[in-house]
Amino acid sequence: MEEWKPPPPGDIKLNFDGSATGSPGQARVQQTYAPPEAEALTLLSGVKLLREQAAGTVYVEGDSYLVINWAKKGKPPWKLKHVFEEIQLILVERNVIWCKIPRSANSLADHLAKDGVSKREMLIGLQWPL
Question: Pick from 69, 75, 77, 65: which is nearest to 37 by CA?
Fold first, then answer.
């Protein structure tokens, strides 16, 4: 089982995850979305938190192959194009490493996503120091 690893000193890591409950075809981020859409919107929310963070390399990790691939190659479905354009705009001057990781290495993000499905406010898990 692979575990989460912290980024090198001076760098920052963003782990993201979406979650679905009940009907496995739906996920929730303030309203109902398909799981890949929820993961993309969760990623955008996390990236927005990085705007003011001074950091070297930004490591972005998630267990969604689709979302990581869309971010790396810039070819998301048309209905998510604006989401990934905003992500790229925020990260344009950053050195970003995108990595698809197993769920076992994304356990805190997975836990927060599952817990957040039933809550109205955004849940953020921060591990300090960065």
Answer: 77
- When pLDDT is cut at 50, 70 and 90, the band that residue 130 belongs to is very low
Place of tokens 């905003």: 86
- The rounded radius of gyration (Å) of the Cα atoms in the chain is 14
State which H helix or E strand residue 87 sits in.
Answer: helix 81-91
What pLDDT does residue 78 have?
93
Distance of alpha carbon 44 from alpha carbon 16, whole angstroms: 9
The residue that leads in pLDDT, 8 or 129, is 8
The length of the chain, given as a count of residues: 130
**DSSP3 helix / strand / coil % (the chain, rounded to 5):** 40, 15, 45
Distance separating the N- and C-terminal Cα atoms of the chain: 24
